[in-house]
Amino acid sequence: MSLTEITARIRAAEMAAQRPEGSVTLIAVSKVQPLERIEAVLEEGHRIFGENYVQESLGKWPPLRERFADVSLHMIGPLQSNKAKPAMELFDAIHTLDRPSLAKKIARMAKEGGSCPELFVQVNTGEEPQKAGVLPDDADAFIDDCRGMGLTLTGLMCIPPEEDDPRPHFEMLAKIAERTGLSGLSMGMSADFEEAIAAGATHVRVGSAIFGARDYGQR
Ligand SMILES: *Cc1c(COP(=O)(O)O)cnc(C)c1O
């Protein structure tokens, strides 16, 4: 599917949900995609991209940023604390703030550096042991803690369990955001971004539907 088609489907989903046109930001998830495919999407004029790995992004994006102005990069993969510094320098947004030790580190570096990426707290709505994110029951307290450290939060992020109907997860995330006064909702991927928009997503993270299937063997 093309970028144009995905954008059209996003606009249609906004309309169906009676939401303003352009209220949903499309993050094109380019992890492990070959450079030609990313360049093609940049040539089409898209500038907002998502990546999962700091190391891969450091190799890939600084040269692309020299050729294409105004690229906005979103970190959507789990963030190790020892990669927090390069991640803060490279990314405009981090969607995977999920633990106090990482929050502390980011708060300290934001103070030292005088700037901070936009921050989303990842919530493990399916309470899956292998998945990152704070548990739903711990979300409010963690959000309070982050604010207490001086961090400004943009919103929440979730990745519903693959086998579940994603809608209750999107609705749960929207509810937590509402009661904690957060306006950003990073939710919805290739298979379910329209449902996410219906539930209030402000940022959808779409990879394979734009770029084609990922080939991890090529890395
Ligand atoms: C890879 C990834 C995506 C994109 O997934 P697709 O199914 O290819 O759209 C979105 N969000 C996160 C957190 C991801 O890791």
Automatic annotation (TrEMBL):
* UniProt keyword annotations, A-Z: Pyridoxal phosphate
Chain positions found as N6-(pyridoxal phosphate)lysine: K31
Q: Which Gene Ontology terms cover its molecular function? A: pyridoxal phosphate binding
All copies of the Alanine racemase N-terminal domain together span: 3-214
User: What does the record give as cofactor?
Assistant: pyridoxal 5'-phosphate
In terms of superkingdom, the source organism counts as Bacteria
Q: Which HAMAP family match?
A: PLP_homeostasis
Q: What is its biological role?
A: Pyridoxal 5'-phosphate (PLP)-binding protein, which is involved in PLP homeostasis.
The family line of this record is:
Belongs to the pyridoxal phosphate-binding protein YggS/PROSC family.
What's the protein here called?
A: Pyridoxal phosphate homeostasis protein
Could you tell me which species this protein originates from?
Albidovulum aquaemixtae
